[in-house]
Amino acid sequence: MDSTAFSERYIQKMKALLGDSFAEYAASCSQEPCFGLRVNTLKTDPEAFFKRAAQAGWDLEKVAWIANGFYYGEPVRPGRHPWYSAGLYYLQEPSAMTPAAVLDVRPGDRALDLCAAPGGKSTELAAGLQGEGVLFANDISASRAKALLKNLELSGASNICVLSETPKRLAERFPEFFDRILVDAPCSGEGMFRRDPGMIRSYAERGPEYYMPLQREIVSEAVRMLAPGGRLLYSTCTFDEGENEGCLRFVLDAFPQMRLVEIEKREGFSPGIGMPECARLFPHKIRGEGHFLALLEKNPGAGMEEETQRKGVKRVRSGEQRALDGAAGAAEAVHFLEQWDAGRFDPGRVCLERERLYYLPRELCTGPAADRSGLRYLRTGLLLGELKKGRFEPSQALAMALRPGDGPGRLMLSSGDERVIRYLKGETLSLSSGEAAGGPGEAAQGGKQAGSWRLVCVDGFPLGWGRVHNGMLKNKYYPGWRWQ
Question: Of 161, 237, 247, 278, which residue is the catalytic one?
Answer without folding.
Answer: 237
